Each structure stands twice: as C-alpha cells, then as structure tokens.
Amino acid sequence: MTSVVIGFRDAKGTGPAFIVAGPETSQEDQIKMISRAKAGGQFPKGCVRLDFCLLETRMTAINTNPQIKKNIEMKNLLLFISALALSALPVKAQSPIYAPNNSATFTVTHGTGTNVGIVIDCRKQASVGVQIEMQASTATTQAVNLVVVRSVDGVTYESGAGQTIGLAAVTSTTKTTAFTNFPSWGCGYAKILYATNNDAGGDVTNAVVRYGTKIGAP
Question: Which of 2, 42, 47, 130 pairs with 30 at a CA distance of 20 to 30 A?
C-alpha cells in the first residue's frame, strides 16, 4: 500500500490539493510530519493543513520494471488528486492511522497551576486519550487535574473555567503514569490549558502530557 501526504492552502481542506510528501517518503516519516504540524504548527511552506492518504496500485507482470512501476504510481496519484480537486472534497485516509503526541516537561507547584497549552485536533475524534507521566516531590497525596477549553475553529476558545479532567492522585516520589480519556464534546479543537496541583505542600515534577489521535479516522 502506497501512502502520500497531501497539503492544502486552506484550513478546511476544500481547496486545491498538492503533494507534500510522495510515495518515496516512508509512512513513518509522513506520520511524523503530520504529527509535528498538528502539535506545533510546523507546516511545510505554502500549506496550513495536511492529510494522510493511502493509495492502492495494482501491479502486473507488464510493469515490473522499477522505472515503469514508479511512473504508473505517479500517474495514478496525479489522477487521484485531480479527481478530488474537481469534486472539491478534502483528502481522507482509507483507514485510521494512530499518532501519539506529547508536551514539554513541566512542574506543577503545590496549590497552583502550570500552563500546558497543548492543542488537540478533535475533528475526527469521538474521544481523546490522555496520559500524564509525573513524579511527586513528597509522599503526600497530590491530586492533579487538567483544565480543557474548547473551540470550533482552533482560533477562538471558550471563555470561563473550561472542563476539568481529573487524574489519579500522585502519592509516590517515583515516576508514575496516569491515563484518562475525555469526549470531544462536538468541538473541533480542545486545548489543555493548564494543569493544577491541589496538594498543600508537595510539588509535581517531571510531568509530561501525552495524547493520541487517529489521523484521517472515518
């Protein structure tokens, strides 16, 4: 199965599509490219949206020559993209591709909150799995919460307190991992605004938030 990364100059992906990474780029590198764009806004020049696409090419004994095979694959790819552009439909993957992402390491001092700022693309997600690795500075119970705000367009987010996502309490000075999931609430984007630590004396250190999304999920 051959895969490509398609770029768009509009965020909705309804405009003309062009190839950003062709079949010569490995699927692993293609997924990394999309992950960097979604997590940190690192888009290739000239586009503001990337989609992952799987293409199926049928080969016969006639086209076993490597150069002929490459030409056929590129011809099929161009025909595929042209059909999508004419129908004004965004490129969609034919099967879910899972891509994990993570934040930078941070500390949450007791009785306070720390900015996280991760933006999660929820447009194709019914729910989002979130995992946080953390370590307590003392052996007391430290309840950590994540505060999430929602947006339709990924630009303007809701005002107010947002949604509070409770995690398992940290009670050990060794590194522990907690996992939870939250619904997408029908929004296009969810931002993990900050993390709080309700303990009176212990800090949460070496914290890393990780989340996973399905790129191009139906």
Answer: 130
